[in-house]
Amino acid sequence: MLFNSYEYIFLFLPAVWLLYIFLQSFRLVSAAMVWLVLASLFFYGYWNPAYLPLILFSLVINFVIGKGLEKKRSKPLLVFGIIINLGLLAYYKYAGFFLETIHQLSGLNMPVVNIVLPLAISFYTFQQIAFLVDVYRGDTVPYNLLDYALFVTFFPQLIAGPIVQQKEMIPQFRRAGSRLFGEHLNRGLFLFFIGLFKKAAVADSFAIWANDGFSRPEQLTFVESWITSLAYTFQLYFDFSGYCDMAIGAALLFNIRLPINFDSPYQALTIQDFWKRWHMTLNRFLTNYLYIPLGGSRHGIIRPYTNILIVFLLSGIWHGAGWTFILWGFMHGAASVVYRLWKRYGFRLHRSLAWCITFLFVNAAWVFFRADSISDALFILKRMLSVHHLNLTMITGHLPEIITLLIFLWICLAASNSNRLITEPILPARTIIIAAAASVLSLLFLNRVSEFLYFQF
């Protein structure tokens, strides 16, 4: 069931919300939590009921290990829990890629493995690894099985994040819903429909241009290669931004605040600033549970840069089982190292030049992220550099696309982040009008329902 589907918007979400507020109105907090768990499991099983046992197994085994770590902070038990989680993720997500790579490198006949990736496994695996580490560190709040089940399965953020921490969610689940009809409801609806507009009207429109270009890289002209790369850059931006808005908005309807996960990343002036704005909770996870345990910025000069490369390589692998994702991760790791060296030696760039370099690098890296192969990505990048082929006919023939891309680039740079709009004490009339218009326009595009891009990760 997709956030941007009629079933979710007009059936599932209203039904779950109505019974939830009914239970909360009588202060039946535990019953309301049970209802949310059951609704979340239905939401997950709606995609493919065959994977319900997997998420339930993962939930129960991590709960048991967590309780064991509460009684005794045993490092071997923590390592065992992490291995269990990574083992499940490795089998379902990387077994096929691993065997195919061995076959390509060695020529050995490896068995064909056709494993369908269970939805959300990357997200709930990382979330539960963070939970186990937090329990080991003594950085959790008291919880029972019901608390933990809702923490893992809460449907607004189950499929593609944000990746949340136990201590920031369980106290909210246990809070009575006294403000359900107040500001959270208004702000939740505003965010949800703004996000729906970003996904249905904007991202899916850019997807048409991006899909066309990436399907025929060898036929692209100089202008078409730029239209293709930028179309995907904006598709991914509005797709993920829209998902984050809809997730936070849906959670607010239940009086739950999810952490902000997206903060206008194309306004970043450095690659480090970009990663503080893009998928912010994944960056938090990688920093707190990988970069710092590896030694962080301690232990000399070389070690921190090595740690950065390791973190970004693993980030690339986490996003997808393919060499294009690994190269994308390496590119961002290398860029982060270069930026830190640049900063270390006191170099400075004008803000405009700094933004231009950062944006062009991110756009080029997204080509690898999207392309079917490294060779396809290199071909597109080669065409993007073939400026000597540019002529007036190319420009005039694609003038509508060029103008549209420039308009949305301006929007990315000038518009306020939607999460900042809801911090105002009272939503102004213009904001409410924008949300209403966005909701109406979005519904007109629901006939072309498509998955969010981050669902594949």
From TrEMBL:
Protein's UniProt keywords contain Zinc: no
Molecular function GO labels: acyltransferase activity
Protein's UniProt keywords contain Transferase: yes
Pfam families referenced in this protein's UniProt entry, alphabetically: MBOAT
Bilayer disposition of the protein: Multi-pass membrane protein
Keywords: Acyltransferase, Cell membrane, Membrane, Transferase, Transmembrane, Transmembrane helix
GO BP of this protein: alginic acid biosynthetic process
Major location category of this protein: membrane
Membrane-spanning parts: 50-65, 77-95, 115-133, 145-164, 308-331, 352-369, 389-415, 427-446
Subcellular localization: Cell membrane
Gene Ontology CC entries for this record: plasma membrane
InterPro entries membership: Ac/AlaTfrase_AlgI/DltB (IPR024194), AlgI (IPR028362), MB_O-acyltransferase (IPR051085), MBOAT_fam (IPR004299)
Superkingdom of the source species: Bacteria
Similarity section: Belongs to the membrane-bound acyltransferase family.
Name of the protein in question: Peptidoglycan O-acetyltransferase
Native source organism of the sequence: Insulibacter thermoxylanivorax
